[in-house]
Every structure is written in C-alpha cells, then in structure tokens.
Structures
1.
Amino acid sequence: MEERILYNLLQVVVVVGLSPLVGGVLDRLKEIVQSKRGPSVFQPYRDIWKLLHKDEIVSEESTWLFRATPYVAFVAPIFVTLLIPVLTRYPLFFAFMGDMLGGGFVLALGGFFVALAAVDGANPYGTMGASRTRMVGFLAEPVFIIVFFTVSFVAGSTIPYIVQSVWINPLSNFFAPSHVLTMLAFLMLILAEDARIPVDNPSGHFELAMIDKSKALEYSGRGAALMKWAGSMKLFVLAIIFLNVLVTPWGLAESTAPGEVLLAIPLVLFKVLLFLLVLVVVESSLAKLRLFRITEFLGAAFITSVVALATSASGI
Amino acid sequence: MELIALLLIPAAVAGLSLVLDHKRAAVVTLAGNAVVLALAVLVAKRATDAGAASALGGWLSCDPLGALILLLVAFVGLTSALFSGGYIRGHSASAGSARRNYYPLYNLFLLSMLAVPVLANIALVWIAVALTTLTSAFLVAYEDTSEALEAAWKYVVLTTLGAVVALLGILFLYWGTRLAGGEEFTWAGLLAAAPGIPAPVLWMGFLLVLVGFGTKAGLAPMHTWLPDAHSQAPASVCALLSGVETTTALYVVLRLFPVLEAAGGTQARPWFLVFGLVSAGAAALLLVYVRDYKRMFAFSTIEHMGIIMVAVGLGGTAHFGAVFQIVTHALAKSFGFYAAGAVLLATGTQEIASVRGLSRTAPATALALLFGGLAIAGAPPFAVFMSEFAIIKAGIDAGRYLVVGLLALFVVIAFCALMQHVSRMVFGPASRDRPAIVPPASCLAALALAAAPILLLGIYLPDGLHRLLAAAALALGATP
Amino acid sequence: MGAAMTPYLVHLNAMTGGLFLLAAFAIVATRQMSACLRWFVAQSLLLTASAAVIGIGLGSGHLAAVAVITFLTKVVVTPWLLRRTVRRELYSRREISQVFNIPTSLLIAAALTLLAYGVLYPVTALGVGAFAAINLPVGLAGLFLGAYTVAVRREALAQLIGLLGMENGAFLAAVSIAHDLPLIAELAAAFDVLVTALVIGLLTRRIYDRVGGTSVGLLDALRER
C-alpha cells in the first residue's frame, strides 16, 4: 500500500526531473540529423537554472492570470502523471482518481491558462499565437475524443492501466487496425498539440509565424523557467501516454519489488528515446504547413481515427 | 462451331485492317461482317430449334435471347460497315493516322459486342461489356475536336464507373451462387441457384448491376454521358453505339429479371418500372428542348431503353413486346443515325435550327430523315409502332393502367417533339439555292438495306423471327 | 496453417483493410497528381497484401496467384503505363480548387464510408467470416470513395486514379468473397484494368495536346442551352 504511494511520487519525480533531459536529447538529435553538433543534452537544465536566478519583469497592465499561469502550467502535467502508467503496469494509488478523459481535461486546463495569459500580457504576438493555438486545438479535440473512444471501446474501460494491457492480451491485438490506426492518429495529434513540424516550428525565431512559442514570449525569470519546464513536461507526458498506454506496456515493472521499478526508469527512457528518433525523422523530412493547411492535416488525423473506430466496430 | 468463327472473324479482320489501307480495309470489314451475319443467323436457328447453341465445352453458349442480341449486333454491324465506307471517306478531313485506326477499332468494337451474348461465364460477360467501352473510346473521339474529346472523356469515365459498380454486383451474385451450392456461374447456373441465394446478397448484387450497367445502357438519371457521346461520334459509330451497344448493356440487366423472379416474389418489378418510366419521361421532356439532331436521336435511345425496361417490368405477355421492341429499336435507331449522318454530309451542321428545307436541297437525304424520324417515333406502319403497341396492349390486359398511361403519355410527347424537329428540317423554304446533294453510294445502299426490315416488320413478322422472339421472351420468364 | 495463426492473420488483414481505406481517403484529398498516383500504388500494394494474407489464412493457392497477378498489373505495369502515356508535365500539376474544399471532402468521404458499412449490414449480419467482414465494407467504401473522387475532381489524372481506386475496392471485396473465381476470369479482369489505364491515359494525352489543359471537369461545352 505504502509502496504504491511511494511509486506514484517516484513517477512524478522522474517526470519532473527528466523532462528537460528529454527536450535536450530531442534538440541534440535534430541538430545531428542536420549535420551540426548541437548543444549538450543537459543544456535545458542550465537554461532553467539561469532563468530561475534572473529578475522577473511583469507588466503593470496584466492581472493575476499572468502571474498564476506558470504555476498552473507547471502543475497540470504533474497531475496527469499521477494518473497514467509511467513505471509500473499495475495501478498505483491515484490511478482511479481520473481516467483518460480526465487526464486530457487537466492537460487542456494548462493549455487554456497559457492561452489566456498570452492574451492577458497584451503582447500582439502572444494574442496571435493564442488564437492560432485555439484553432489548432479545436480541430484536434474531436480527434482526441475519437481516439480515446476507440481505445475505450476496444478495452472496455477508460482507465489507462486497463487499456494498456489490451494490446498484448492476446498478442495478436497488437496488429489490430484499431491499435495501429489510433497510434497513427495520436502521433499526428502529438505533432499538433506539442507544436512540432508540420504544424509549427519549435526552433523558429520569427514571431509572426509562431503558434505556440509566442504565448511564452512575455515571461522572464522564474515565470520563463517554469513555462519552459512545463513545455518539456508536456512533451514527456504526451510521449508517455503514447508509449505506455497506446503503443505497448513493455518495459514497465510487473511486481512491486523496488529493483524492478527502478529498472523501469531506464527502460522507459529507452522507449522515449525511440519515440524521439521517430519524431526527429518526421520533423526533419516534412516542411511546416501553411496555417490554413493545418485544418487538412488535422482532417487527415480525424479520418484516421474514424477509420480506426469503423474497423474496430466491425468486430475485429 | 459457328460461335467460335463468329468471334475469330472480327478479330482477324481487325488485324488485317491494321496493315491494309483504308479502302481495302473497308472492303474486308464489309465482307467479314457479311459472314458474321450469316453465322449469326445459323446460330439463331440452332438456338430456336435446340434451345441453345454451345461450343468450346460450354465456355461459349447462346440461348434464344442471346441469339437475338447476336443477330441484331451482326445486322447493325453490317449496315454500319456499309455506311462507313462512304461516310468516313467523304466526311471530315481527319488526319491519316486517325483514319487508319478506324477499321481496326471498329472491328474490335464489334468483336466485344458480339462476345457479350455468346460468353457463358458471367464474369467474362462483364469483361466483354467493359471492353465495348474501351474499344469505342477512340471511335467516339474520332473527330478530334475539343467537344468530341470531352464527349469521349465523359463516355469512358462514366461508363467505366458504372462497369466497376456492376463488377461488384456480379461478384456478389457469384458469391451467392456459391453459397447456394451452384456449380457454374452461367446465366442458367445463376437461375438454377437463385432460390438458394440469401436475399441480402441477391438484392445487393442486383441493385449494383442495375445501377452499374444501367449507367452504360443510358437509363436516367445516369444518362448524362449519352447525348454527348452519341452525338459527337461519327454517324456509323453512333448507329452501333445507340443501336446495339446500349442494348448489350441492357441485356445483362434484363437477364437478372428471371433470376429475381425465381428467388421468390415480384419485388424486382417496381425497380424496372420506375427506372423505365423515369428514363422515358426524362428523355421525352429533353426531346422538346433539344437543338442538335444527333442529340435528338440519342435522347430517343434513352426513351426506348426506358420503354424496354417498363415492358420487362410489366411481366407476362409484355415480355414479347419487350424483345420485339429491342429488335425494332436497334433497326430504327441505326437507320435514324444513318439518315443523320447523310444530313450532316449534306449540310455540314448538326444544329436543327440551321437545317431548313432539306427536301429541296437534298431530297434523298430528306426522305431518309423523314423516314427515320417517323420510324423511331413510333408511327405506323413502321416496326416500332408494332412493338410499342404490343407492349401497351399487354399492359392494359394486365390491368396496369397507370403505368401504361404514363408510358403512352411519354411516347406521345416524344413523338410530337421528334416530328416537330424533323418536319422543321425537312420542309419549308431552303436556306440557300444549291444543286441537290446526293449522299455517297455506299451510304445510300446502307440506308436502303437498313430500311427494309423496318418496313417489313411493321407489316409482317416472319415465322422464324416470331419463333425466335417467343423463345427469347420465354427466357425472360414470360408465361407461354 | 495452424489455428494459432488465424487471429494474427485476421488482424493483419484488418490492418491492411484499414490502411487501404486510408489510401482511398488520401486519393480524395491529395492535391498533387504524382502524389495521387503514389497513393494508388500504395493502395494496390495493400490489396496484394490482403489477398496474400487471406490466401494464407484460407490455404488457397488460387489467391496466391491472384496476389501475384494483382501485384504485376496494378503495382508494376499500370503505373508504368500511366507514366508512359500521360505526359510528364501533367504529373506536377496541382489541383488547387476542388468542388468542395479538402476538409469538407474528407467529411463527406467519412460519411460515405459509414454509408458503405450501413448498406452492407444486412449482408454482414448473415455471418460472413472474419476476412469478409472487413474486406466487404472496406471494398464497398473504396468503391464509393473512388466514385466520389471522379465526381468532384476536375483534373483528368485525378479522375482516372479515382476510377482505378474504385476497381481496387471491388477487387478487395472480391478477394474475400469470390476467391475461387476461375483463373481465366481473374486474368481477363486484370487485362481489362490495364486496357482501361492505357485507353484513358492515351485519351488524356490527346486532350492535353488538343485542348491544352487537363481540367476535364471544367469542359462543359456540350449541354442544352
């Protein structure tokens, strides 16, 4: 019983602590693919450390929203971490506090606050970024819902721990179209939600073309550090959901032995690394879409999820 | 034996026409077609007497209904080959290569149409129907104008679309036959297995084939390609397209009628009636507004396909009228297009409004056009009148007053529209004073040859033909 | 093949079916002609895979032959024919404006897929076996989507590929319900596909040479005025 609480907290520590590393590895990999050397994988830690020690400047015209948002954005992925399987295959203490839809809503809450804060800061680029994020978000919502509906329909439950075991019992379920196509749709969703190419360029500097980064432009000092950390945590959490819930539960601890749980940490990191490789290939081979073509991209994701639903509804 | 020769001869002629020059190719085609017609008559006799003619161990087989279609294809093929001789040479200054391809394509087209009633396996019948479209694509595009190409494009794309839909339907029917334990996928095998086919499978197959091949036969509302294709092609090709190609597609649909009746119930009849009436009605209305006389004949094709569908849907004694209508329509429609082709040669325009006083400028052509218009509209004493009369009489005997009333109304509207257009072209003052234009000799010969049966059948039905028609109607499921 | 393999095969076949459907959607939505052709090749590959999987599942050597024939005609010869008969510059055309914009087209296509499932419900309710339960609806949906492509696209190549996609759908359904059709019929059907591609390809070239463009959907000179 105690170990379940312990492991739950361990999950949070792992996510909070290792997400900047994941961000750093991703950036380094992208640079390597482009034949450059790239920054050290620990650079995000140094950036966060530096920002935490700088002064914070907050506009007088902004409200409590602007000041509170970095904390909300930082805490939201932590709450989601409590709900999803990160290290163990069996449900932990907080597992039944919320299901996948609940987790989705909590993540959306963080994004909601960030968008509002961007408008609150009155930076014109921030407002533009917020409205564009909303456009992408409202088109992505139906895809989320249908993906979650499909996996819940197949698994008979909405709790992530139960859903993840469906894909390997029996093993042939791994190849079911409802599995493969939901993976594909969710991957496209991650690209949209986390503002990766082809939806947005995360390493771009041109504010007029930004969708996601411009919302955090106004922050400085501690606020900027928390926003940056929250961004990498969001990527890590989405990757964990994708890998541990939708793709496969391999590499997770089966028993409550502490050795197994600690062993799961590098295994999960390894899985995340493979995911990052896929992400890097996708990002390096596609070009950023024009703004109104994003609707077509999300339309394709929607269609993929609908087809997944249709093929699973036919009884296979 | 004749069946194999029937298919080999057009293939051989097609090959020969590739190497021969245009004039000799025309002669070879004509000779080949004459032999094919003779063979078709022999097959028809065998089918009427013995019930079926077969060859190649059952891969080729022809029952009376098939033999009837075969006979029509062969006859219209002959008259069209005769007409082509003068028409193609005298017509547009088409480039040498296009002219060189005419006869090979013509013979391949004829071969594919001959194959439809003769092949026994229904899947192969589908392939033959699909090939009729593909072989005639470049015949429709012969004129090489942008309108002709547009017509050819719509023709190929829409009829192939219909053919693929029908393919799925035929696959359903095959599956149903296997589920019912049937061994052979021939018309007879399908009919025998029909009571055992699960109803959803049978209906799915039927509806897909109806819509798919109905598109190819020109039934409304899938007819939009027909007026374009059948007006832009050269007149000899139009005669084949309108006269027999749509008939071969309709033949496949009609073959399913007894299958559905055997499976239990007359529920298929409303489908035939509705499609038929909608086609006849739409065509009649469109005939009022038409401005191009070849399109006029094309709309008339749609109308007649509708009439045949209605006749089959009425059931019983109307089936004799239906098969008779198939014959008379093929004869009259091909004649009508030959007349239209002669008018085009004489005036150089396809617009009705531009042709006036034809009786003064080209009397032989005018006579042909008047004859053709009357014949296809269904005036006595021409053959079409006899078949339409037979259908309406059978409908009244069966008590289907509403259906017959609507059909008669549409026929009358079409008649009036056709006669108004034709009389405006034939009578009246001439547009200008020119010496009388006479069509080329082979065109005149074709017109004469095509006219003979239309007149003959309007007055007297030869015994052999009567027996063939009765046997064909029986194949459709008529009560003897 | 042991019974242990069958669930794998069923799922594999279902996956090829799902990806086939995705390829059909992609053909509806792709702007560039060369991408359309590539999606068609992908769809044909998936058709071959489905035939092979069902062949293994049912132990039918016939289907193996069908898979080989399909591969040769649709994946190898037909694209080659299309590239030879249609002029090269036509492949770099992009169809910017369609009758409906792409998201609307995708929604209509999704509705057509659901329609295909609904229409076939009386048939699949009869209990048709796991392979046909996927191939029939997906095949019919592929047919509908191909027909929709022909209806709303204006470019000649897009209409042609829609037509070929329709045939792919019909063949996908055939593989599961008509898997013992006489081989000669299969060969003739494959030949017919080739001839279709050849004829329409040549016609497209003729239209391009004569009219100067291939937006055949915009040709409407022939109508009653």
2.
Amino acid sequence: MFLPLRKEPPAPAAREVPPIDLEAPLGLVTATFANG
Amino acid sequence: MWRTRVGYAGGAAERPTYRAMADHTECFQVDFDPTVVTFEDLLELFWQSHDPTREPWKVQYASLVLAHDADQLAAARESAERVSGFLGRRVATRIEELTTFWPAEDYHQKYHLRQDRVLAAEYRAIFGDDEVALRESTSAMKANAFVATRPGAAVVDRYAGRLGLGDAGLARLGASRG
C-alpha cells in the first residue's frame, strides 16, 4: 500500500540573535515597580 | 537598561493571571547595569512617572516598590520619605520585599511591538515561537520603547545596527536609514 506523502511546509529559518542581546554585561541588577 | 518584563506581584495568591489577579498588582521589572545607572536613579524616575500620593482605587493599580534585597528596601524607604517631605503629603506607595514575581501572559510582554505587524513579523523571524526569548530580548525592549515613545531618528540610529532588524523594521522605529 502506498501512503500519500505528507508535505510539511519548510520551517522558517530563524534569524541570528540580535547583537545587542549578546552584549548584556555581567552583574545586572533587577528592580520591581508598579506605578499605577 | 538591558531587559524588562511585566507581571503580577505584591500579593500572596499563587499563579495569578490577568483575569484572576487576586491580591496582586500589575508590575514591571527592569534589569539594569548598576555601573551605569543606580537604583536611586530608577527611584527618581519612578516617583516622576506617577502621583505616588494618590490612593489606588484598585490593588491591581497600586503604587509599589518591591525590593530585591535589604539595600533596595532601605533606599526605597529613604527615598519615599524625602519625596513625602518634598510634596508635603503622605506617599501611598507600598514599599515591601519582593516575594514572587509572576510574569504576565505572553501577549502582555512587549505589547507595543506586538501591535505593529511589520515588527512583530521581524521578531517572529528571529525568535520563532520562543516567547521567553522575545520577552527577555534587549532588542525587543528597545523596539517596544521606540514604538511607544517615538524618540526620533537621533536616538533610534544609535541602536539601529545592533537590533538585528531589517530595513522595514528599522523604518517602523523611525530610524533614518531603512
């Protein structure tokens, strides 16, 4: 029996991570606020 | 400023959502480089960004500083006292230690950017379905801020080459090239 070939759409090629995302320095500090 | 995210905090309920926030407040977090900007600098911006003497009509919209350590707690209390003295009124802002920050649903993160079809498609091409990567992206944070505040080409151009966007996306941000 021949099964029909299932044609998957090509996965979109992920682009490179933005350069600025890789520039974060060590030692970042987090602050949490709510301003209404 | 390197990363931002919005979420729910200040309450005790487990796993709050936008529809069921319980005793939590809508909050935002910023990850900053303390060698460039200080927590005290952020407190100044915080006080200037709203009227801290106004009593919230709903806990969802309260004014809060949720400290991550004893130093932040002391700095926030000291700063609030100074602001209260300057304004001559009691500050309604609650200053407490952060217990748990619950990130908001994906569709609340980088909200302004998501409303722009071109930019949303550009970031989808970069991050695919990885919503955490988008939420934690410095590029997405900058783009979101640029869409919301329209700072002009002089500011956007300083970052344009590092955002990883194509010409169409940069044009949406108001860059001079693109």
